[in-house]
Amino acid sequence: MTEFVVAGAGLGGSLMAALLGRAGHRVTVLERRADPRTGLVEAGRSINLAISERGLHALARLGLTDAILRIATPLHGRMIHPVSGPLAFQAYGRKGQSINSISRASLNQVLLDAAEQSGAVRMQFGRRCTELDLEAGAVVSVDAVTGQAPERHPGVVLGADGAYSAVRGQLQRRERYDFSQDYLGHGYKELYIPAGPGGAHRLDPNALHIWPRGGYMMMAMANVDGSFTVTLYLGFDGPDSFSRLVTPEAVEQFFEREFPDARALIPELAGTFLGNPTGSLVTIRSRPWHIGGKVALLGDACHAIVPFFGQGANAAFEDCLALEGALGRHPADLARAFGEYEAERCPNADAIADLALGNFLEMRDRVASPWFRFEKRVQALVHRLFPRWFIPLYTMISFTRIPYAEARRRARVQTRVVRGVLILVAVAAIAAVWQLIR
Ligand code: FAD
Predict the structure, then answer these.
(1) Other Cβ atoms closer than 10 A to 419
(2) What DSSP character marks residue 241?
(3) Are 90 and 134 in contact, with CB atoms under 8 Å apart?
(4) Shortest-distance Cα residue to atom 46 of ligand 1
(5) Residue 365 has what pLDDT?
(6) Residue 299: is its pLDDT beyond 80?
(7) Does the pLDDT value for residue 42 go beyond 60?
(8) Would you call 250 helix, strand, or coil by DSSP?
(9) Residues 257 and 251: beta-carbon distance below 8 Å
């Protein structure tokens, strides 16, 4: 049995604490925020997110699948909203395959309950981790509001404190620590479509709604109470950008022009838009993820990614399972366990970071193109004909647990083969027509 201190009780930290507690370790969890189960949700954090196969698999380890699916809305595909004209539905995969829209707060609460129910996890809310004592193996926390009352927490430290991790910040002070952070030129703003009469959804609840507009896009995902969380992804600067949308008139005009159907569903648009914070989107890469057997990082703390594949939390959950597995294999040699965990997860974190950036272009632009839709249909057909040999990238990422790096490698090969075949078919068709008319 080991004494662990987990910094951060977000999605990754609370799942990890639950897994460790269940394995019989003693765990202290330090969280900067108040207990979200008291109803206080921090403004500006995404209100709902999509959990897919990887996340569900991790939740199943704690027997939480049913509890989570009960409070989630299945999304079977994308619903594309053009500026005018009919909506177009694109299924994500085969019939019955779906990702799941779930409230971040509810998911976090289920995980916090699971951690506490293990009986070995002690939660301390309102405590901000500030320092790491690598020699002794301990973390120091202070009262998150006053910055006073420092406390020392001895144990093996797991940094699950998100993209701006204080634990990683301490590691970055060491020599030869690799770190990069790349901000996207786009940020995001959350808006809200309330439920219709009788709590009915005002858009199809079982689709991820996308308004692709080339340089930017808007998305909406259903909540179980009949409402939708809407997220606008827009450049910070430029002609159509957050920097221009600073008056109620500018906001109204922009939405009337670009998103007329959504505009009609969002009450108090300008006030909400101007009142809500604008979030930034960052890709963070760091190495190493552990120092000996004293400290390790997981989730956004070591690999924050942009949200366009809906995989940040799913990837953090996969980290937790990989770490649990490595600790189970080497209970008496944590340095080795952490080393194996990092070797397994690093290449996959890099791969999903790249794929998520690539998917932004697909969602904001390519989904609207007829060629893209044709290619997707061909991919679906080839997948049906050769289900083992050809699996579309989206399917591999969202509906399987094929490691991200392997999925990326396979997708590159598959794309080359399918495009090659399409070119051959096109050439053969042109040759046949030429023969006929000659
Ligand atoms: P977090 O969930 O951020 O948790 C970190 C915790 O640490 C927080 O509770 C924080 O308060 C706490 N903390 C921070 N600093 C300290 C400190 N010094 N001391 C103590 N505690 C501290 N992922 C998906 O899988 N699907 C999606 O659809 C999806 N959509 C997204 C949409 C948006 C707009 C964004 C921004 C992200 C989205 N993500 C999505 C990504 C997902 O939210 C993150 O990848 C996930 O929350 C990472 O979990 P984590 O535990 O590593 O970090």
Answers:
(1) 12
(2) B
(3) no
(4) 313
(5) 79
(6) yes
(7) no
(8) helix
(9) no
